[in-house]
# Entry
Amino acid sequence: MGVTDQASIRLSFDASSCDGWGMCSLVFPEGISLDRWGFAHVTDEPVQGPLMRKARRAAACCPRQALTILEADPAPRAPWREPR
# Structure
């Protein structure tokens, strides 16, 4: 099974909402790092497998709700076609 065949999620990060508490990086250090002031830097890569649970926990523990989980589409969509 290839990487694109597995279920995955992505983290969306609103930097303007982040207050630098850093709890997210403690929960999900594989995908979130902190700068020297404590503000998060989030991976752009899809999160898969057992790391999905950690990513969801990181988003849930953010006191400012700066992290959002974006669900992957379950199946690719057919291209849109102009009706005839």
Remarks:
- The helical segments are 23-27, 51-61.
